[in-house]
Structures are given as structure tokens and as C-alpha cells.
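Hi Y.,

Following your request, here is the sequence exactly as I used it, all 168 residues.
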Amino acid sequence: RYMEFPDLEPIAQTAGLLHDLGKLLFCQLQPIGFQAVHEYAQNERVPVPVAERKFLGCTTSELAVRFAEKHGLPKHYINVMRWIDAPAQATEDIELVAVVSLARDFCRHNHLGSAGNPPLKAFPSIDQSDEWRVLRERVFPGFNLRKFELMVHADCHDAKQALRGRAK
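Below is the corresponding structure, written out as C-alpha cells. Let me know if you'd prefer a different format.
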């Protein structure tokens, strides 16, 4: 909302919920395998997608894309699933992909939720991120990046408190 992409807001909310569909599918199909992949990634200090590819032959993002295409999910959700880890490479729905990717990075950095990926310890400044490289030319000229960053961190804190039953 603060970035003033009103047309993207409802789509981005749904895309944010769906972006890890592949992990949910993997958990449903192979709950023990899901755990084994994440333990392997942690023990071997490799990125989760590397471990997924070793055990599954594909990543859970690729699994999600195949599932979504087979079941006719809207293209913008598929694009988010496909490019969430590399928003600058998106060829369609680039703003949507970048917004959802940035939101996921904020959540990981603020330890809000987990899909098995470790929290981001070294969270670069937003203005150095791939997501911002995509979005900086698309936000309104007076956009205050520092204020936005502080607001998002505060929102993540409030969400964590609410999830703990300590809402304001």
C-alpha cells in the first residue's frame, strides 16, 4: 500500500500466500523427506534449493510451478512462484514478483514465519537489493525508502506479537 501499487495489493496478498506452494506439496507428499532435506541443508550448510534438487531432482519452486500450471492457476501467481528468488529475471509481472520477494525477505529477516529457510542474518539495505533495483523506477518520486523500511519492520514486529497472542 505504501508503495502505491493499488492494483497489485490484492494479487500480492494472495501471491504471498501461494509463493511457497511447492513446500506445502512436498510436506503433504513426503513429510519425512521434507524434514530430511532441511536437515541436510542445515548440516551441510547448503542453500535449501540445492538440497531439494539433490533429493527431489527439482526445487520446490519448480514443483509449485508445474502444479500451478497443471491446475490452471492464474499466470501472475505462477510468475511469482517461478521468479521469487530472482525477481530481476522475471519477464512478466515484474513488480508483483519484486513486491512479494521483498515482503518474503522482510519476513525472513524479522523471523516472522518459516518455510524451512533460515532467517536472513545479513539483510542488506533495501536499496542494495535485487527487488529495489526492480521497484525504484516504479514508485512515486517522493517515496521515502527509510520510512518504508521502518514501517515494515514495525509491522513485522506487530504481526509477531499478534501471533503470540499479545496484539496491541
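The mean pLDDT is 89.

Thanks again,
Q.
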